[in-house]
């Protein structure tokens, strides 16, 4: 679930997180009454160094270890492997804890290596470094619990703030997300009668608008979700059932999350075709209002479109573009996500239709966007990325995609303008991201493309 705003000060954490004002800012804050982390500063994260010695020699590893010892840097993990950049060499991958004088160690290693790459959130503004990003799908476990807001803690203006039962249920859902790890079965949730009633109110009202206002892809998938995943007025679908359905359709899966993730972390999940989804539901006193995305938003708004191949590819392209991108481009990509995946419109033969989850899960705004008098603009990532938007009222501007394929091609073109020293490719076989920054890697990619082209040509001959 993507954060709407990441402008959160340390004072806010002091107010809501229970930490004294003078506590170290580097330490991740634990949420009272729960086990999960609200957020930690970047410097509390590990730093990865990838480097190759100038030549093979006995004792070279010991020399590097002495460098780390010299600067009091603690190591969490170290491994050697064949170099991905220079086939005749090998390289070391070292995970460093936030300790000692890491800057000094980096400078010494840089001067005694063929190459050095630093992957870290804390060192992202230094030369030859890129922000850390997950390389394997299981790496999503590293940040899935570092949420920006909500979870079991609620702001004073939240509809459920004074409801002890609701707060207890929010803690229950937050702990489910906290304990989940990649590869596990998504836990089954027994929703209460009140929760199912709230879902039913939202489900019933929105379904009356879908045939008229939802895009054809959403209307194609929704009956399949009713048939296969228990989408109905008197039942809240289980994430496990929906995730399995999406995996069979496009390879997308759902992962439980306790609250809002940072834009960088949320978008990184999309690169692996993973959507971080909440399981809690809005407060029953206001069934048509929620200050944060809930299970109605996730399952009625987002999930149906992730079953469409073109939309799934478009969403993944945004995620891949975010990996290793500078902070200012993360903000731009998150804005593109906001105006497409959350509040996007598309053009069909009989007029404009909604495909954004924020519209498809909001009875009032879905009507306003297509029956009111907002401003419409064509989707152009370069221009859309800098458009400001409100988060507490209906959108004054909506962007129109000619098709998901057209939007995808525009995003790929825009991603090429992001300043990062490598390209990335998702390997669906290993569920990992391949960093393309050397000639051998490009050659392997060309070889793979050649094999796919042979299959295509052979298939065309048989038509």
From TrEMBL:
Pfam families: Biopterin_H
Reaction(s) catalysed (UniProt annotation): (6R)-L-erythro-5,6,7,8-tetrahydrobiopterin + L-phenylalanine + O2 = (4aS,6R)-4a-hydroxy-L-erythro-5,6,7,8-tetrahydrobiopterin + L-tyrosine
Entry-linked InterPro entries: ACT-like_dom_sf, ACT_dom, ArAA_hydroxylase, ArAA_hydroxylase_sf, Aro-AA_hydroxylase_C_sf, Aromatic-AA_hydroxylase_C, Euk_PheOH_cat, Phe-4-hydroxylase_tetra
Domain ACT residues, every copy: 49-121
SUPFAM superfamilies: ACT-like, Aromatic aminoacid monoxygenases, catalytic and oligomerization domains
CC cofactor: Fe(2+)
Residues where Fe cation binds: 297, 302, 342
GO biological process: developmental pigmentation; dopamine biosynthetic process; L-phenylalanine catabolic process
Protein name: phenylalanine 4-monooxygenase
Organism (species): Dendroctonus ponderosae
Origin organism lineage: Eukaryota, Metazoa, Ecdysozoa, Arthropoda, Hexapoda
Gene label: 109539248
